[in-house]
Amino acid sequence: MDQPQRALSNEELDRLAADFDHHGQAYRDHRVQLLAHMRAKCPFVHSTQHGGYWVASDARTVLEIARNVQAFSNYPANVIPILETTMMIPLNSDPPELFEYRSILLPLFAPQKMKEEASEIRATAHRLIDVIVARGEGDIVADFAQPLTGITTLRLLGIDPAEWVEYAHPLHELVYSSRTIDERRADMAVMIERMRAEIRRQITEPKGGIIEYLHNVEMMGRRLTIDEIDSIVLIMLGGGLDTAQALVGSAAVYLGRNPDRRQELIDEPELMEGAVEEFLRLFAPTQGSARRATKDVMVGDRLVKEGEFVFMSWVGANYDPDDTEDPERVDFRRPGNRNFSFGIGPHRCLGSHLARWEIIACLEALLAKAPNYRLVEEKVELAADVGTVSGYRTVTVRV
Fold first, then answer.
1. CA distances (Å), origin 95, targets 72, 225, 305, 346
2. Which H or E run contains 148?
3. Residue 394: pLDDT over 90
4. Of 76, 194, 196, 253, whose CB neighbour count within 10 A is largest?
5. CA-CA distance, 399 to 94, in Å (whole number)?
6. What confidence tens digit (pLDDT) does each residue in 63-84 have?
7. Distance between CA atoms of 221 and 238, rounded to whole angstroms?
C-alpha cells in the first residue's frame, strides 16, 4: 500500500518465497504480493535466512501457532534476528508467569483508563501540530508522531516527558538504522542505564506514575524485584515509543496521496475510529512475531523441530482473503474489522488501547489544523528495513 511497485513475476516470487527475508528490500517493496503468493502456494514455508526459520503467511496458521503456548515460546526473543538480548517482561515470558505478570499490568492499560487519557493526548497532539503549521513545514515523524508517543509514554511511566528524545532515539535507531548492530546496542545500553537510574531514584522519590505502581504492587503475594521492574519498563518504552508513531506516518502518507479519502474523514469525522482500524490492518507497524518451538510439533503437515523458530506474519494474516473480504480494498466502514497488528493470543499487546488513542489524536489534529497538507515527496522516505517495525524515516509536509 506504499507507492505502486512493478508487479513481480511468478518466478521472482518463487525465488523470494524460497529464501524469504522480511528484512530485505524486496519484502519491503512487494510484501503484499509476496505474501499472497506464499498463501496460495504454501502458507507455511522454511527460509534459510537469519539462521533458518519457518514463516506462516495465512491467518489460520498464524492463529494455530499463536495460541499454542504449550509448544511455542516467546523466549529468548520475539524477533528474528534477535536485536536486543535483554529479557523483556511480559513479552518474553511464557505461562504461567505470563498470566501472572499480565494480571498486574492489564489494569494499567484498561480501555476506560486509556479513554480517560484521551483529552491530554489530544491536547499534546494539537500543541505539536500547531508548531508545524506556524512554521509552514514539518516532519510528521520527527516533529509530531515521535514526540507525541514519547511524551505520552514517559508521562504515564512517571519520567520527565522533556527527556523523550533520550529514550526514543536509541529505540528508533535500533530498528531503523543501517548502522551495525553493535553500534545500535551501544546506544541502547546508554538508554537502559538512564532508565535503570530513574527506576532506582523513584524508590525514594516516587512520581506517581507506572514506575511507582510497579515498586508497590504485589503479584502472587510478593513484590516485584528491581530486575523485573527494569524489564517491564523497558518493554513499555519499546512498545510505546516506536509502533504507534510508525502507523501515524503511514496513515499520513496514504491520506496525503489520496486526498479524496482524506476529505472523507474531514467530512465524516465519525469514521475516524474505523479508519484507524483499517490503517492498522493495512499498514501493520509490527510485521509479525517470532516463537521458538519447545518440542517437536506439527504445523499443518510440516514438522517444526524443537529449538526452531517460526515467524507469524501479521501482514500475511491481515491480507488473508479467507479472513478478510477483499483485503486490499481500503474500507473505513469495514464491519467487524479484526486485524492481527497488535498480535493475537496470550501475548496480545498490552498497550493497544493507548496506541489507538494516540493514532486517533494525531490524525484528528492533522486534519483539523492542516487539512490541505501536501507531501514533499522527495522527503518522504520509507525505512530501508521494515522487518521489525514498518514505518517512514521521514514524512515531510507543507501546510
1. 11, 19, 21, 9
2. helix 146-157
3. yes
4. 253
5. 48
6. 999 999 999 999 998 999 987 6
7. 28
CB 101 within 8 A of CB 93: yes
pLDDT exceeds cutoff 50 at 175: yes
Q: Quote the cell numbers at residue 79.
A: 524477533
Domain boundaries, the chain: 10-398
Q: Phi/psi zone of residue 308: left (φ > 0), alpha (ψ -120 to 50 degrees), beta?
A: beta
Closest to 44 (Cα-Cα) out of 338, 324, 298: 298
Q: Quote the CA–CA distance of 128 and 227 in Å, as a whole number.
A: 35
What gap in Å lies between CA 121 and CA 362, rounded to an integer? 9
Quote the CA–CA distance of 86 and 204 in Å, as a whole number.
Answer: 26
Exposure class string for 65-74: b at 16+ Cβ within 10 A, else e: bbeebebbbb
CA distances to 72, 83, 85, 197, 310 from 294, rounded to whole Å, are 6, 21, 19, 35, 11
Cis amide prior to 206 (ω within 30 degrees): no
Q: Calculate the alpha carbon distances from 54 to 48, 311, 356 in Å.
A: 9, 6, 31
Say how many CA atoms lie within 13 Å of 315 toward its Cβ: 25
Residue 58 backbone class (left: φ over 0; alpha: ψ -120 to 50; beta: rest):
beta
Give the fold, CATH level 3, of 10-398. Cytochrome p450 (1.10.630)
How far is 294 from 75, CA to CA, in rounded Å?
10
For the entire predicted model, the pTM comes to 0.95
Count of CB atoms within 10 A of residue 167's CB?
23
Q: Percent helix, strand, coil in the chain (nearest 5)? A: 55, 15, 30
Q: C-alpha grid cell for residue 186?
A: 551501544
Exposed, middle or buried, 163 (CB in 10 Å: 0-12/13-18/19+)?
middle
From the number of C-beta atoms within 10 Å of its C-beta (0-12, 13-18, 19+), residue 132 rates as buried
Cα-Cα-Cα-Cα dihedral sign, residues 255, 259, 262, 264: negative
